[in-house]
Amino acid sequence: MKPNDNNLRTAMDRRLSGMKVEDRHIAAVFSKAQGRQPRRRAVSLVVAFALVALLGTALAISWPATISWIQGIYGDRWADELKVGTHMPIHQVKVLGQVRYEVLEAIYVGEGQVDKEDYSYQQHSLYGTIRISPAADANIVLLPEDTLLSEYIGYNSHKGETAPPGTPTFLQKALETDAALLIATARPHGVLIDGELQEGWEIMYDYSSHGDGSLSYHFQVPMVPEMPEYQIKMSIQYWEITRSGKHLREGPDSNWVQDMNWVITVRPEGK
Asked: Nearest to residue 211, comparing CAs of 29, 65, 46, 52?
């Protein structure tokens, strides 16, 4: 699948809605997809994408998944802010029907430690990653949203990744294993402050498919004050998509499963 400039920009703007997608981000993704040598200013973006594709979980071992995500999109400067932020490992699990959701971590970034500008969008934000995988004994193939059945497991076209020959598509994997195809999502509504949902700020999120069949959803909730603990209100849901591409979310055949009010409480270690 070859990314189209307008489609790619639209996809990046929608998923990374808190930030303006610049021409250099588009150029970097195209350079990687087409095998060209990127310009120097885009090196961190392209190298991060390449490492994710080649090393998989090895990169996540070096840095938490959330930092690897930010580094892959925006480079070292923004990632450095997260590295010195408040890290809160969570590993809280919720099984919803056939799907397992695990909140891996949250990272709070307050005043900039690396970027000393008076204001930077990455500051005063809560970041995190949710890993989605099949529940025990569930025979399913998981897809992230806005993904075609003809796309390849573990390779994300909206990030310019291309699959090597022999990589199965989501549909091929489902046919091979006689599995149901499920679209699964995990997005935050926001942070609760004194029991009330903080509103008025647009939440950034993104997702990835992995070679082992799991998905990752990443998020940034902006303009969050520093607190002794953080309550994140999550929306988790999934529904089946038939092998012909029909989404079973409405009518008598609907099998849409959701929990729109999952609240996760996270605290900095030692508090």
From this structure: 52
Q: Burial of 18 by CB count in 10 Å (0-12 exposed, 13-18 middle, 19+ buried)? A: middle
For 41, the 3-state DSSP assignment is helix
**SS3 of 199, please?**
coil
Bridge partners (DSSP) of residue 126 are: 108, 221
Contact of 53 with 35, CB cutoff 8 Å:
no
**30 dihedral zone (left: phi>0; alpha: psi -120 to 50; beta):** alpha
108-135 tens-digit pLDDT: 998 765 555 544 566 889 999 999 999 9
C-alpha–C-alpha distance, residues 19 and 208, integer Å: 18
Q: How far apart are CA 194 and CA 231, in angstroms?
A: 10
In sequence order, the 6+-apart residues with CB closer than 8 A to the CB of 234 are 103, 130, 186, 187, 188, 189, 259, 262, 263, 264
Q: 175 by DSSP, 3-state: which?
A: helix
How far apart are alpha carbons 26 and 120 in whole angstroms?
A: 22
pTM (2 decimals)?
0.76
